[in-house]
Amino acid sequence: MLAGVPRTDRGRVIRQQIYTLEPTQTGDVIIDPFTVRFTTGRTGSEKAEQPAAEDSAAAEDSAAAEDSAADGRRSGADTEHNAETHVLETEPLQITVSGILGDAVPTLDDLRPAADPLEPPPLPSSGWTVALAALAVLAFVIAVVLKMRRQHVQEPQLSPQERALSELRSLMDSRLDDSDVKQFYVELTGIVRRYIERTTGIRAPEQTTEEILRETESRQLFDAADNERLTAFLESADLVKFAGFVPDTETIRTSTHRARTFL
Description:
With 263 residues, the chain is an alpha+beta fold. The protein has nine helices and eight strands. Helix 4 (160-174) packs antiparallel against helix 6 (181-200) and helix 7 (209-218) runs antiparallel to helix 8. The longest helix is centred in the middle third of the chain and has 26 residues, at 127-152.
C-alpha cells in the first residue's frame, strides 16, 4: 500500500491510498469489494462563528452580543453530537491476469539440434613419442616373461627328514634354550611330531604323548630302538612343558641328541 500526500480541494481534504496487488495465478480474477468508512457534519467551532457574526452586526450593545455568542456556542456543541458515520463498499472488480508468455504456447520446435561430439586432440607423432611407447611395451613384455618363469620354477622338494633337520638347525641357532627353556622344548617336540605326521600320517601334533606311543607301537611304524628313543624323548619333554621341571645343560643336550638321532 502507498499513501499519497493529503491535498485540499474547495475546502475538502482528500487523502489517496494506492494498493498494488500481486496475483498468484493467471486468468480471470475477482477483486473483493473494499469498505470505506467516513464521518459527515461540521465542527462546533464552525457553527459558532456564523451566529456570532450575524448577531454582532444587528446588536447595539455589548451585552446582546455576548448573549448571542453564548447561544452560538451551545448550538455548536449540539451539532457535534449530530455527526454521522457512513460506510461505502466498492463493487467487485473482475480483471484478467496474463502470463509472461501471454497467449503463446511453449514449444520445443526452436531448439537447436545436439552438437557434434568433440574430436580428441591428435596424438603427437614425434620420434620421441614412438620410442617411449616402444620402450613401455618392451618393459611390459619383459615383466610378463620374468613372472611366468618364476611361476614355473619350483622349489626343490625336501624330504620329511631334511625338513625336520633344517627346522632343528634353525632352532639351535636361535639359542632359545638360553632365554626360554620351556618354549624351547615346545618347539623341539613340535619338530619331532611334525616329522612323525609327514612320514606316517598320524596326526601327532594334535595327540598326547600316550596316544602317539600307543598308535606307533600298535602299528609297528618304528623299530624297537626308535620306539624306545621316542618314548624317552617325549616323556622327558613333558616334564619340562607340564611338570615345571627345569633341565640343566646336559639334559637339554641329551634331549636334542635323542631328537636328532630319531630323525
